[in-house]
Every structure is written in structure tokens, then in C-alpha cells.
Specification:
The complex is a heterodimer of chains A (about 300) and B (about 260).
Chain A: E1 6-8, E2 11-13, E3 17-19, E4 41-43, E5 60-63, E6 66-69, H1 78-89, E7 95-100, H2 105-116, E8 122-126, H3 137-140, H4 143-156, E9 161-164, H5 172-181, E10 186-189, E11 193-195, E12 198-199, E13 204-205, E14 212-215, H6 220-231, E15 238-240, H7 247-256, E16 260-263, H8 266-269, H9 273-287
Parallel strand pairs in A: 3-16, 4-7, 7-8, 8-9, 9-10, 10-15, 15-16
Antiparallel strand pairs in A: 1-2, 5-6, 6-14, 11-14, 12-13
Helix pairs in contact in A: 2-4, 4-5, 6-7, 7-9
Chain B: E1 4-17, E2 20-26, H1 28-33, E3 39-43, E4 51-59, E5 64-70, H2 74-80, E6 87-94, E7 107-112, H3 119-126, E8 130-136, H4 145-150, E9 154-159, E10 167-168, H5 172-181, E11 185-189, H6 192-205, E12 209-212, E13 228-232, E14 238-242, E15 249-251
Parallel strand pairs in B: 7-8, 7-11, 8-9, 9-10, 11-12
Antiparallel strand pairs in B: 1-2, 1-6, 2-5, 3-4, 3-6, 4-5, 12-15, 13-14
Classes of the chains: A alpha/beta (about 300), B alpha/beta (about 260).
Chain lengths: ~300, ~260
């Protein structure tokens, strides 16, 4: 048994594995499989100022070694989250990262301000959702907008603030530096890559939203590259994600520079994936006689 | 909700019709828990997303579940390539099934194509109180009529081209005739346009009706919100429910087509 604990922005995690926002709802469904206390943390479904109904179906399509989704931030709104979901989550003995989003910087700040007076452990600000028309990725694809929304949310809360970055940019390091300068305590990356498929028989896109976010093992090499680049560009810690499906994948992303790792599509392939990844990471460390997982963070030896 | 996820052996496999296969799995915990209308969420080897496949037979005594599925794409093609003795990765039983009405005297089970299999557990429950109206494109797709009859159900087959069965055309023809005589409930599964036509007929005649829907799905347990279905609540407000957890079975009047 290796020491799997990590510390992110002063928040202790029992292990570095966190189901990613959007795949895990508010945790209730997966509690039927294992106690949520097994997890390092949970990034909750992206929550906005008001209830959102999301996009028309189909919202899902499998692609080679991955999938497209266009759920569109369906959520009950921040007040319902704080009243009905957060109290339950806070009893689960795991770190809760409340993922938030909004159409404007003001909406994001308002949502963060409401969370500031709760006991939630961290806020993950989504500036990178590709599936909503306003806000979302629009914030995440320019340094000015990313800085502006980060600054607004920073003023609204003293909670540790993680900003979730979009990979759909020319230079993710510039965006990471811009949010770091405005007071982000950490960054998480990568959100999904914007993609599209067309049914050639009907000539219709397979997603009703036409385009959607690509995730899964197909994007893992992009995630490793971007985490590595960002790790070399900023001083704040990184939560890595993008196609992680094994303990060794998690170790790889941590060696690239991530202090913790989120798990997305793998939860759909196998509902036990986060737990198996924790066990796999532990086994990898033991086999290689590494006493503590934090000893591997950022230890890649580039050529 | 309690789920089982694991690998379970295929103990029987049969080809039923063109690109349509029946498999029986030995999975005692799931067989003990399964209800008519629920489905299994099955991972084809080498794929990242599971495929929702309706349950076509429940035998808690033998500890088995039966599935019948059509090859629709590469994932279901991979499942169809599995054989007796192979182990299938299954999450289940999943979803909210059909409402069983112990007092009902006459129910109609409307299945269209690969929507027929989930009617079979209902036929097992209702026996001679059920009439199964099954629609297919042609004789090549006709499945499960002997199985439905073995449960005691009356069977009526419709084919679009008249190449098999009692009636050329759609299932709505025989259904309309039965509705005019009064039935206690209609259960339906099949293509969207068929379900909509069945739901409209039932709403018009004031007949209780449940429909089983299909949608592209990821988690299968209600977390990812991928398999959205437009519905209205009791106050008429529009809301998205999810086929995997709130469904796949919905009351006909809930669904916005």
C-alpha cells in the first residue's frame, strides 16, 4: 500500500482520483456500486445560476476509442444544488468540487458567491463547455475573456478556485497563465475536444446539437501533452483529465505534471472505473517501489 | 436501485431471423431482480460504451435472463459474434419497467420489429389475458410468435408488405379494432412513429398505455443525462427525463413526441 494522499490548494485528498464533472451527476447513482468515500473527490455536474434543460437528443455517440456528447449543461440550478444535493454530498467523506458555469461572468460570480457560504471544499469554474451557445467555451478560448471571468469569480469567493480549461485553443499555456494571473488556485484540463460525426445515409449529424465534445482514450495523448505544457508554464497545481482509463494512465498524467486526475468516459465503460484506477495506481507504485504518489508528480524526464 | 455488474456466461444462442439473435445468460442475482420492461446494459468487447438491450425472458428459478437483439451497428455485431461459453460484460437490471396490473382482464402487447422482445415477459405475466400484436417489415423479420403463444397470449402478426401474418399494414389496424371493444391496458415498444400512433390511439380512446423508448445512452444509471426524453409533468410543464433511469417505460401521455 503506497501513500496515495495528495494536497491541492491546501485541501487534503485521500487519493488523487476524482470522477469528472458531467459523468457522475451528484454521486447518487454510483453509490449503488461502492461507497463514495473510496474516491479522492467528486467533481459535480456543471451547475448554473438557473435550471437548464439541456439539448435535444441524441446527445451521445460512440466514436473510435471515444465518444461525443452534447448534453448541454442540463442541471437544476445552483439553489436546488445547494439545497438538495450538496448537504448529502458533504456527508460522503470525500472532497467535493462544485463545478459551475454560466452564460456571463456575472452569472458565474453569482453562482460562486452562493457556494462561498456553504461547506463545499473547492469550486471548479467551467470556462470550456463546448455544448452551450453562450459562455462555456466562449470564455475559455480567449485570454481576455478567461481572465475576466476568473477575476469576477475570484472576487466572489474565498474557496479554492480551480479553472477548467478548453483544449480547443491555439495556446492552452497562454490561457492557463491568464487565469493564474487573476487568482486561480489551480487549473484542470482538458475538457472535451469539439467534434462532429455525420450519418452518411441520412446526411444528418449524429448529435442533434450537430457538434459535441469528444472524450475517451482517443484524446488521452492530447491531455498528456497539454498537462505537460501547462505544468511548464504555471506555478499553480494541475488536475489532469482526458481519456484516463487505468492506474498507469493516471500515473502518466501525474508524471506529466498533474497533482490529481479526473476520470470521465471510463465510468461509462465500467462503473467501477474510478475505484479500479485507484487500485491500479496503488499497484503501479508498489511494483515500482515508489512509497508515495506525490513523488511522481511532474517527474517526466523529457528528451 | 441496486445493480449488478460483471461477466456472465452465455448458455444458449440462437439465430431467430435476419440479423436477429437470442441469447440466454446465467446471472442469478440479476434474474432474481429483473422486472418486465427493464434492460441490460451490455459492453461489447473492445468498445467504450455499453449497448442497452431489452430483457426478453426472466427465469429466477434457473437464474437466467434472455435477450433478443438485432445487429444495428458494429457494437451489436460484436455481441452477435459471441457464442455459448463466452462471458458477456453486463450491467443490470437497469431502468424502470412496465406497470403490472393484476386485475386486468385484457391487455394488448404491441411490438414493432425489435420492439417485440420486451413484450415476452409481459406475455408470461398476463398469459391468456394478453393479445400480442406484432408488426414487421416482412416475413424475414418475424420473431418470437411461438414464444408469445406458448405463454398463452393470442398472437396477431402484421407485415408492411403482407408477406407474412394475418394483416398487411401496420399494428394500428388490429389495435384500433380491439380498442373499440375496450381493453384494460396497452403496452408498446418499437419505432418512434409506431409508438406515437399507438399512444395517440390510446389517448383518444382513454385507454391506459405505457411505451418503452430507446435513446443513445452512455452511463445507463441516470448520472450522465445523455439519453434525454422530452416529457411533460402532471402540470403540463416540459422537462427532460432520462430513458435509462426514469424509463425506458413511460406513460403514453407523459411523452412529447
Amino acid at each position: 500500500m503506497a501513500d496515495l494522499s495528495v494536497n491541492l490548494c491546501g485541501v487534503p485528498f485521500k487519493n488523487p482520483i476524482i470522477p469528472a464533472s458531467g459523468v457522475f451527476g451528484y454521486g447518487r447513482e454510483y453509490e449503488a456500486f461502492y461507497p463514495l468515500s473510496r474516491l479522492g473527490g467528486i467533481a459535480t455536474k456543471g451547475t448554473t445560476g438557473q435550471r437548464r434543460t439541456g439539448n435535444l437528443a441524441p446527445r451521445i455517440a460512440e466514436t473510435p476509442a471515444g465518444m461525443l456528447n452534447s448534453v448541454g449543461l442540463q442541471n437544476p440550478g445552483i439553489d436546488a444544488f445547494i439545497e438538495k444535493e450538496l448537504p448529502n454530498l458533504l456527508t460522503k467523506d470525500t472532497v467535493i468540487l462544485a463545478n459551475i458555469a454560466g452564460a456571463t461572468a456575472e452569472e458565474c460570480a453569482e453562482v460562486a458567491a452562493k457556494l462561498d457560504s456553504t461547506d463545499v471544499h473547492m469550486i471548479e469554474l467551467n470556462i470550456s463547455c463546448p455544448n452551450v451557445k453562450q459562455g462555456g467555451a466562449a470564455f475559455g478560448t480567449s485570454c481576455e475573456m478567461a481572465a475576466q471571468v476568473t477575476a469576477a469569480v475570484r472576487r466572489a469567493t474565498k474557496k479554492p478556485l480551480v479553472v477548467k480549461l478548453s483544449p480547443n485553443v491555439t495556446s492552452i499555456t497562454d490561457i492557463a497563465k491568464a487565469v493564474e494571473a487573476e487568482g486561480a488556485d489551480a487549473v484542470s484540463l482538458i475538457n472535451t475536444l469539439l467534434g462532429m460525426r455525420i450519418d452518411v445515409r441520412t446526411r444528418r449529424p449524429v448529435l442533434h446539437n450537430n457538434v459535441g465534445g469528444l472524450s475517451g482514450p482517443a484524446i488521452f495523448p492530447v491531455a498528456v501533452r497539454m498537462v505537460w505544457q501547462v505544468a511548464n508554464a504555471v506555478k499553480i497545481p494541475i488536475i489532469g483529465m482526458g481519456g484516463v482509463s487505468s492506474g498507469e494512465d493516471a500515473a502518466e498524467l501525474m508524471m506529466a505534471g498533474a497533482s490529481a486526475v479526473q476520470v470521465g468516459m471510463a465510468c461509462f465503460t465500467d462503473p467501477y472505473a474510478p475505484v479500479k484506477i485507484i487500485d491500479g495506481l496503488d499497484a503501479f507504485l508498489d511494483q515500482n517501489k515508489i512509497p508515495a504518489v506525490r513523488d511522481i508528480i511532474g517527474t517526466v524526464q523529457p528528451w | 436501485m441496486s445493480y449488478t455488474q460483471g461477466v456472465f456466461p452465455i448458455i444458449e444462442k440462437r439465430a431467430l431471423a435476419e440479423d436477429t439473435f437470442s441469447m440466454t445468460l446465467h446471472c442469478p442475482a440479476m434474474a432474481a431482480a429483473a422486472q418486465p420492461g427493464q434492460f441490460l446494459h451490455i459492453l461489447p468487447a473492445g468498445y467504450g460504451l455499453r449497448r442497452p438491450i431489452s430483457i426478453a425472458g426472466i427465469d429466477p428459478d434457473k437464474g437466467t435472463l434472455r435477450i433478443v437483439f438485432a445487429v444495428r451497428g458494429k457494437g451489436t455485431d460484436a455481441l452477435a459474434g459471441m457464442n455459448v461459453g463466452d462471458f458477456m460484460d453486463v450491467l443490470g437490471p437497469v431502468g424502470h419497467g412496465f406497470t403490472l396490473l393484476p386485475e386486468a382482464q385484457h391487455v394488448v402487447l404491441v411490438g414493432g420489429g425489435i420492439g417485440v422482445p420486451p413484450m415476452l415477459p409481459l406475455a408470461a405475466y398476463y398469459g391468456a389475458r394478453a393479445t400480442a400484436v406484432s408488426g414487421f417489415r416482412s416475413f424475414r423479420q418475424v420473431i418470437l410468435q411461438d414464444d408469445l403463444a406458448a405463454c398463452g397470449a393470442q398472437t396477431i402478426v402484421c407485415t408492411e408488405d403482407g408477406s407474412a401474418g394475418d394483416s398487411k399494414g401496420f399494428v394500428t389496424g388490429p389495435l384500433e379494432a380491439m380498442l373499440s371493444e375496450g381493453v384494460d391496458a396497452v403496452y408498446a415498444c418499437g419505432p418512434g412513429p409506431m409508438l406515437r400512433a399507438v399512444a395517440d390511439l390510446c389517448i383518444r380512446t382513454g385507454t391506459y398505455c405505457e411505451v418503452s423508448l430507446e435513446e443513445r445512452m452512455a452511463c445507463g444509471v441516470g448520472a450522465c443525462l445523455g439519453c434525454a426524453c422530452r416529457t411533460k409533468d402532471e402540470n403540463g410543464n416540459e422537462q427532460y427525463l432520462h430513458v435509462c433511469k426514469n424509463g425506458p417505460v413511460f406513460k403514453a401521455e407523459e411523452v412529447i413526441w
